[in-house]
Structures are given as C-alpha cells and as structure tokens.
Automatic annotation (TrEMBL):
<dbReference type="InterPro" id="IPR007484">
    <property type="entry name" value="Peptidase_M28"/>
</dbReference>
<dbReference type="GO" id="GO:0016603">
    <property type="term" value="F:glutaminyl-peptide cyclotransferase activity"/>
</dbReference>
<protein>
    <submittedName>
        <fullName>M28 family peptidase</fullName>
    </submittedName>
</protein>
<dbReference type="Pfam" id="PF04389">
    <property type="entry name" value="Peptidase_M28"/>
</dbReference>
<feature type="domain" description="Peptidase M28">
    <location>
        <begin position="86"/>
        <end position="296"/>
    </location>
</feature>
<dbReference type="InterPro" id="IPR040234">
    <property type="entry name" value="QC/QCL"/>
</dbReference>
<keyword id="KW-0808">Transferase</keyword>
<dbReference type="GO" id="GO:0008270">
    <property type="term" value="F:zinc ion binding"/>
</dbReference>
<keyword id="KW-0012">Acyltransferase</keyword>
Length: 302
C-alpha cells in the first residue's frame, strides 16, 4: 500500500474515532413515553417495580455492568418501610481510568401538591420531572455502546428524589443520599445531574449551587452549548436548587445540575401537578441537552 494512502487511512480512522455521535431526540422521547406508560413511578409501587426491571434490561444492552443498589427507607409519617433502588450502569470498567458520572432521578412524586386541592393526593405522571433526565441518559448509553470512550462513564439513576412533602428536605434526595453515604473509594472527576430537561419551552440558566461547587464543569457545559448554537443554555444565574447533586457535592464530588425549574415558564407551572405529561415535553429539548452532553463526553478524548 502506498505510504500516503496508509497515512490517509489512519487519519480517517482517527477522525472517525474522535467524532461525536448524533443524539436521537425522537428515540429519547420514546424512552420518556415508555416510562410514563408504566404509570407513576412512586417508590414501592408496582409501576415502579415494572419500570425498574425495564430500565435494568435496557441499560444491560449497552453497559458493561449494571448494578441495582437496593435499600429501604422508613417513611417518617407512616412508619412504613419503602423499598427503593438506585440503578448504576458502568461503561469501561478497566482499573485506574478516570471516570465521569451522569445522573438523573427515575422516581415520580407521590402527590400532586401544586395542583388544585382535589388532585393533591394523586401521584404525578412525571414526564418532565422524572422521565426526561432518564430518557436522555438512556440514549447516551446507546451511544456509548456504539462508540466506546477510552475512559469510564457511570450512569446513576437515583430513587426517592421527589418523595418528600413540601418543606421536609429530609425526605427528598433519598437515593442520592444513600449513594453518597455508601460511595466508598469511588471518585469521579466530576458529575452532571439532569432534572426537568424535557420542557418544550426549554430554558437552562446556570444553577447557583453548581457554579459554587464546580465552576469549571459549568463553564465546560455552557461553553459547549454556546459553540453548538443551543441558546436554551442561558449564561445567566438561576436560583439555588436543592436536588440530587447536593449529597454528591457534600461527598466531595464536583457536581452540577442541569435543570429547567420554570416549567413551562414563570407565569405557569406544570411542576408537581397532573399536567406533567409527555405532550408538555419535546424531542428537540431532549436532543439539545443530550447533544451537548455527548460533545462534552467525546471532547474529553481530545
């Protein structure tokens, strides 16, 4: 083979290896709809049990290893023990590799306490607040299988993020707290949490706790979005939000939260209501977030 053809072939191979996969927003949206179709994924419910089995099976098609971290939580009001589980999918388990963690919560809220009074005892569908972050991570998992990275990635789906009653933070972020308390020697370089990222009117300001804990990660993500032309990532400061990233930050992991808390906007709210349904979400919003994350992940190779 002529040398110039050999070098051209090597250059092409390297270019292909360094290319960023295309995020499929429609497939991701189908993942969102699939979760909602199980019914509200309230901890301890049959719908959540069925959804967990599906998530483990789905991630098992892509990840090198899937671990279910099962535990029980004692409800402070009823005294009942509520079974919960975090689902952990790992890619590239070779020792001594750097690792990056991606996370979302997969449970949905037991009560629609921001809805009208007669609905407040009903569980929410959780299309955006629950299913959207998971939907993005499932499509990222598919990309990681198809085009493996040279370093390690861990996708963690937290249970019990939205279990608590209004004003009782000790019963929120239950799965994230359990994971952080049992983290052992696991130390990813940084982590990215996705929450409420499916809103059809997507708006993603910088979350305050994130920029305090991991300004370099915030810069990496928002600069990437700006370069790609995704204006939903807004370079303005949003509010401080208590979410699953807080236990991880307290465990010493630089962690950020990508979240659209104004759902759909400041004048209206589907958050914690029965209106949190797939028709309020968009494949394009999922693609916006997913494509930015794929660029962040694959550009770590360079």
């Amino acid at each position: 083979m002529p040398r110039f053809l050999l070098f051209a072939g090597l250059a092409l191979l390297l270019a292909c290896n360094n290319s960023v996969p295309e995020f499929d927003g429609q497939r991701s949206f189908a993942y969102l709809e699939k979760q909602v179709a199980f019914g509200p994924r309230v901890p301890g419910s049959e719908a959540q049990k069925a959804c967990a089995e599906w998530l483990v099976d789905e991630l098992g098609q892509y990840a090198d290893r899937v671990v279910v971290q099962s535990f029980n939580h004692k409800d402070k009001h009823s005294g009942r023990m509520i079974p919960m589980k975090n689902i952990i999918a790992s890619f590239n388990n070779k020792p001594r590799l750097k690792r990056i963690m991606l996370a979302a919560h997969w449970d949905s809220r037991p009560r629609a306490d921001q809805d009208k009074l007669e609905n407040q005892h009903k569980p929410i569908p959780g299309a955006n607040d629950g299913a959207s972050g998971v939907a993005v991570l499932l499509e990222i998992a598919r990309a990681l299988k198809k085009q493996p990275l040279s370093y390690g990635v861990d996708i963690v789906l937290f249970d019990g993020e939205d279990y608590g009653r209004e004003g009782e933070l000790d019963e929120y972020f239950i799965g994230a707290r359990y994971f952080a308390e049992n983290i052992g020697k696991y130390r990813p370089q940084y982590g990215i949490l996705l929450d409420m990222v499916g809103d059809a009117q997507l708006s993603l300001p910088v979350e305050y706790n994130s920029v305090r804990a991991a300004p370099h990660v915030v810069k990496k993500v928002w600069d990437t979005a700006e370069r790609l032309g995704y204006t939903a990532f807004e370079k303005r400061m949003g509010p401080a939000i208590s979410d699953d990233h807080i236990p991880m930050i307290e465990a010493g992991i630089p962690f950020i939260d990508i979240i659209d808390f104004a759902y759909p906007d400041q004048g209206h709210a589907y958050w914690h209501t029965l209106q949190d349904t797939p028709d309020k979400c968009s494949p394009q919003s999922l693609k916006t977030v997913g494509q930015v994350l794929l660029h962040v992940l694959y550009e770590e190779e360079q």
